[in-house]
Automatic annotation (TrEMBL):
<dbReference type="GO" id="GO:0006432">
    <property type="term" value="P:phenylalanyl-tRNA aminoacylation"/>
</dbReference>
<comment type="similarity">
    <text>Belongs to the class-II aminoacyl-tRNA synthetase family. Phe-tRNA synthetase alpha subunit type 1 subfamily.</text>
</comment>
<dbReference type="InterPro" id="IPR004529">
    <property type="entry name" value="Phe-tRNA-synth_IIc_asu"/>
</dbReference>
<dbReference type="InterPro" id="IPR004188">
    <property type="entry name" value="Phe-tRNA_ligase_II_N"/>
</dbReference>
<dbReference type="GO" id="GO:0000049">
    <property type="term" value="F:tRNA binding"/>
</dbReference>
<dbReference type="GO" id="GO:0005737">
    <property type="term" value="C:cytoplasm"/>
</dbReference>
<protein>
    <recommendedName>
        <fullName>Phenylalanine--tRNA ligase alpha subunit</fullName>
        <ecNumber>6.1.1.20</ecNumber>
    </recommendedName>
</protein>
<dbReference type="InterPro" id="IPR010978">
    <property type="entry name" value="tRNA-bd_arm"/>
</dbReference>
<dbReference type="GO" id="GO:0000287">
    <property type="term" value="F:magnesium ion binding"/>
</dbReference>
<keyword id="KW-0963">Cytoplasm</keyword>
<dbReference type="Pfam" id="PF01409">
    <property type="entry name" value="tRNA-synt_2d"/>
</dbReference>
<dbReference type="InterPro" id="IPR045864">
    <property type="entry name" value="aa-tRNA-synth_II/BPL/LPL"/>
</dbReference>
<keyword id="KW-0460">Magnesium</keyword>
<dbReference type="InterPro" id="IPR006195">
    <property type="entry name" value="aa-tRNA-synth_II"/>
</dbReference>
<dbReference type="InterPro" id="IPR002319">
    <property type="entry name" value="Phenylalanyl-tRNA_Synthase"/>
</dbReference>
<dbReference type="GO" id="GO:0004826">
    <property type="term" value="F:phenylalanine-tRNA ligase activity"/>
</dbReference>
<keyword id="KW-0030">Aminoacyl-tRNA synthetase</keyword>
């Protein structure tokens, strides 16, 4: 039995000393000292040993185990030390090299423009309100005085999910939700993403952003609308900016208008930027239609209001002199790093 134990010990030590990886040491430990290892097999054969010899054989087994474990531990420590030294040499830091620079992100041009618009209107007492991008047909059209079968619904090129559910084509439904709450007066700004079935080109996208404003109170007139938007234009484009209102038609406002601002590049004299006209169209606006007020539970005899809608991308394109809307969505780092 002792000869067998000596053979097991000698073979184990030979394998340990020939090992070149920690994984192999673990395999040797399992093969010789594990539950199904060589020494465990010897212990299981103790039943064949004479009773008077069992204590001596048990002592031999324990001594063999201790010697194998000792050699294993010495070899493990030696390997780990060598690995650590090798790693330290490979990962040495040259303090004379230039420090690495972290690339920091920053706000998108759309975000910069939106924050500027929000700052202006919040400064005038407006509240920023957000609404769902998936809307009911009623809130996107009917509550805005666009009934079933009206041609304006076809002009919107809307993405319908079901017959009654759609991706909103404007942020006006957010205004309707606020009016239905009945908390008057209202001074709100509704920014958000909208969706229309447009072909992608330099000035169109199936997904873009709108900023719509709404004021409802007693004795609100078109003069309030003009004064508010004139202040907004001066804050956004400069103190010398002038505004011009042209009659237009929107189904949910009456009277309606489109607002132009004097070209801030040439001061209204005419240039390539304003196509020689001296003016740049910027938004649509008007007095809230009495029927829209009625449908939202507001008495048009007591309350009036005005609304306006601005394309966020249009603001960004004008303010930063970008000539192609697609640049805002292509995520070209060379373009975005300019802002």
């Amino acid at each position: 039995m002792k000869e067998r134990l000596d053979q097991i010990k000698a073979e184990a030590i030979r394998q340990i000393e020939a090992s070149d990886a920690l994984e192999k040491l673990n395999e040797i430990r399992v093969n010789y000292l594990g539950k199904k290892g060589e020494l465990t097999a010897v212990l299981k054969s103790m039943k064949d040993v004479a009773p008077e010899d069992r204590p001596k054989v048990g002592q031999f087994v324990n001594e063999t185990r201790e010697e194998i474990e000792k050699v294993l531990e010495e070899c493990r420590v030696k390997m780990e030390r060598a690995l650590r030294e090798s790693k330290m040499k490979a990962e040495v830091i040259d303090v004379t090299l230039p420090a690495g620079k972290n690339t920091m992100g920053h706000r998108h041009p759309n975000t910069i423009a939106l924050e500027e618009v929000e700052r202006i209107f919040v400064g005038m007492g407006y509240e920023v309100v957000e609404g769902p991008e998936i809307e009911k047909d009623y809130y996107n059209f009917e509550a805005l005085n666009i009934p079933e079968g009206h041609p304006a619904k076809d002009e919107q090129d809307t993405f319908y999910i079901t017959g009654d559910i759609l991706l909103r084509s404007q942020t006006s439904p957010t205004q309707v939700h606020e009016m239905e709450k009945g908390h008057l007066p209202i001074r709100m700004l509704a920014p958000g993403r909208v969706f229309r079935s447009d072909e992608v080109d330099a000035t169109h996208s199936p997904s873009f952003h709108q900023i719509e404003g709404l004021v409802i109170d007693k004795n609100i007139t078109f003069a309030d609308l003009k004064g508010t938007l004139a202040v907004f234009a001066k804050e956004l484009f400069g103190e010398s900016t002038e505004v011009k209102f042209r009659p237009h038609h929107f189904q949910f406002t009456e009277p309606s208008a489109e607002m132009d601002v004097s070209c801030y590049k040439c001061g209204g004299r005419g240039c390539r930027f304003c196509k020689g006209s001296g003016w740049i169209e910027i938004l649509g606006c008007g007095m809230v239609h009495p029927h829209v007020l009625q449908m939202s539970g507001i008495d048009p005899e007591k309350y009036t209001g005005f609304a306006f809608g601005i394309g966020l991308e249009r603001i960004a394109l004008l303010k930063y002199e970008i000539d192609d809307m697609r640049l805002l969505y292509e995520n070209d780092i060379r373009f975005l790093k300019q802002f």
